[in-house]
């Protein structure tokens, strides 16, 4: 199987990187944080015009008609830029929420027992309850917003709200909620991958510029080991995420999310070590990647759930080493 990117895929990745660099550079990102971390509607519409939310819708539905691998490439770039907002939820619900595909509507994600990010900026709510999914819009959604209460967020770029029990609120059911959860987990893993790569680049750059005892700190063995470990984490996660994007296998997606979460959190922590005390200051961007990585690790598929999925798959492998059931199938 050939995992090399095609020319079209490379062009797509370059295009989204250039778009984000021009429209959501560091100054714009910092302005958004100073303003409370909300979503910029102008940029959201521009992302919609670029096809981000309609990327996987068929052409007959006004979409681009591309697949999961292309979505992963885009979300990899989104993670590098620390772009805020429920981007995965909006893309996955684009076919069910009016205006979402064009970037005119924001679809927030609600999971049982967890706060909802960017609720004040949202126009609809994608509710995941186990393997079931539904969308709340209109008056039902507005009622949820009225009853919600803001809570302190770990990530300054993701305002959070505690919503009431949603089991009493009916919405439009979406088919194959289990698939939506898996794909949301993979897109979030791609964001984690981009964040891990950006943390590595930041650490290497600082290690080459910062001097101690008359030499760049990157020449010190301890710093070299930190950066090497970051590279191994990022590339291991990249292999897993890209492979899962091609196969869409539930078990491989679980493994990819687990590795990407570890890479994003671990690389941000090591990047802080390379930067020293200045990495914890508000003026530095290092801690922002760590906080966003912590938040993402609890979305769509947690480490505990991913480990359970991997363990269940191993448990149903025969003594000969050959799977005794279809890969990713539900246990009887």
Q: TL;DR?
A:
By secondary structure, the chain is of the alpha+beta class. The chain has eleven helices and nine strands.
Summarize the SSE layout with pairings.
Layout lengths: L6 H17 L2 H9 L6 H9 L18 H14 L5 H6 L14 E5 L4 E2 L6 E6 L2 E5 L1 H10 L1 E3 L8 E3 L9 E3 L2 H33 L1 E2 L2 E2 L4 H27 L2 H26 L10 H12 L5 H13 L17
Parallel strand pairs: 1-3
Antiparallel strand pairs: 2-6, 3-4, 4-7, 5-6, 8-9
User: Which strand-content bin applies to the residues?
Assistant: 5-15%
State the order of secondary-structure elements, H for helix, E for strand: HHHHHEEEEHEEEHEEHHHH
Note the total helix count: 11
Q: What separation lies between the terminal Cα atoms?
A: 31 Å
- Estimated helix fraction: 40-55%
Shape: globular
- Strand line-up across the major sheet: 1-3-4-7
Low-confidence stretches: 326-332
Which structural class matches the secondary elements?
alpha+beta
**Total beta strands:** 9
Residue-averaged pLDDT? 92
* Radius of gyration computed on alpha carbons: 20 Å
Largest sheet report: 4 strands, mixed
Structural notes for this entry:
Strands 1-3-4-7 form a four-stranded mixed sheet. The protein has eleven helices and nine strands. Strand 5 (149-151) and strand 6 form a beta hairpin. The chain is 53% helix and 9% strand. The radius of gyration is 20 Å and the shape is globular. It has helices at residues 7-23, 26-34, 41-49, 68-81, 87-92, 138-147, 177-209, 221-247, 250-275, 286-297, 303-315, and strands at 107-111, 116-117, 124-129, 132-136, 149-151, 160-162, 172-174, 211-212, 215-216. Mean pLDDT is 92; it is low at 326-332.
């Amino acid at each position: 199987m050939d995992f090399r990117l095609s020319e079209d895929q490379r062009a797509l990745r370059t295009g989204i990187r250039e778009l984000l660099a021009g429209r959501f550079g560091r100054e714009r990102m910092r302005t958004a944080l100073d303003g409370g971390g909300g979503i910029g509607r102008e940029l959201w519409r521009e992302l919609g015009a670029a096809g981000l939310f309609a990327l996987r819708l068929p052409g007959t539905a006004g979409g681009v008609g591309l697949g999961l691998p292309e979505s992963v490439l885009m979300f990899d770039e989104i993670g590098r830029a620390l772009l805020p907002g429920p981007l995965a939820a909006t893309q996955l619900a684009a076919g069910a929420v009016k205006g979402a595909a064009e970037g005119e509507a924001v679809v927030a994600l609600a999971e049982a027992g967890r706060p909802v990010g960017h609720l004040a900026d949202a126009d609809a709510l994608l509710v995941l309850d186990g393997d079931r999914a539904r969308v709340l819009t209109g008056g039902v959604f507005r009622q949820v917003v009225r009853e919600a209460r803001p809570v302190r967020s770990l990530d300054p770029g993701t305002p959070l709200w505690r919503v009431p029990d949603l089991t009493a609120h009916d919405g439009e059911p979406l088919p194959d909620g289990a698939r939506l959860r898996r794909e949301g987990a993979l897109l979030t893993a791609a964001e984690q991958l981009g964040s891990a790569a950006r943390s590595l680049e930041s650490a290497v750059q600082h290690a080459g510029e910062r001097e101690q005892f008359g030499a760049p700190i990157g020449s010190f063995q301890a710093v070299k080991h930190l950066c090497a470990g970051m590279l191994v984490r990022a590339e291991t996660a990249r292999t897993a995420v890209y492979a899962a994007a091609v196969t869409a296998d539930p078990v491989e997606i679980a493994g990819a999310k687990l590795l990407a979460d570890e890479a994003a959190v671990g690389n941000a922590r090591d990047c802080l070590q390379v930067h020293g005390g200045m990495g914890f200051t508000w003026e530095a961007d290092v801690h922002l990647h760590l906080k966003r990585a912590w938040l993402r690790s609890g979305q769509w598929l947690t480490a505990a759930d991913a480990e359970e999925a991997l363990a269940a798959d191993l448990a149903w492998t025969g003594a000969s080493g050959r799977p005794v059931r279809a890969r990713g199938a539900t246990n009887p």
